[in-house]
Amino acid sequence: MTQTFHIVGLTGSLRKASMNKTLLKNAALFLPENFTYTYADLGDLPLYNQDLEEDLPESVKQFAELCSSADGILISTPEYNGLITGVLKNALDWVSRKNIGAPLGTKPVAIMGATTGPGGTARAQTNLRQLLFALDMDSVNRPELKLSQAHMKFDDEGRLSDFGTLQVLQQLVDKFVQKVEKSKA
Ligand SMILES: Cc1cc2nc3c(=O)[nH]c(=O)nc-3n(C[C@H](O)[C@H](O)[C@H](O)COP(=O)(O)O)c2cc1C
Asked: In the predicted model, is pLDDT for residue 185 greater than 90?
């Protein structure tokens, strides 16, 4: 029987029309048929507060369960003032906690990012790699997907219309898939 894998997608943007969320959707299209994909909405998570660990909010429990169910994590990060957003940092801080089972563990993770600016979230991705290193997650290092001027690179249906970016995205997802499969072999 074919083994199945579950992927969870995270972004640090809460915007309805988030380009990072759209980029993740495009990434999910490259996952093989035996992979399922769930997008995690981080908007309901409270700001991290150790006092809340005594009686965990429902939103934190649900997010922890979702991360626990994941065989791999895909992250698309916006860049705010040269760093990842508070939303993403807050979410990763929550699920890094041993008190809630540290559900990210050392799972495979692949990152990317989209911005309207020219830098393609390079600074935020460096920042995110530091954080994933601190969490001891198993990051895909190459290729790097830095989507600059992203508002010009999707069609009206939200499909990536930039051929070069699509090629890099496919390579990134292929390497991520290999890592996920290897981690469960
Ligand atoms: C507070 C704030 C700071 C920002 N700082 C940067 C930045 O340092 N570099 C950059 O490329 N874009 C920056 N941007 C632009 C965001 O990358 C852009 O809004 C992008 O669309 C956010 O991703 P989203 O479409 O997924 O929401 C900033 C936006 C905001 C709101």
From this structure: no
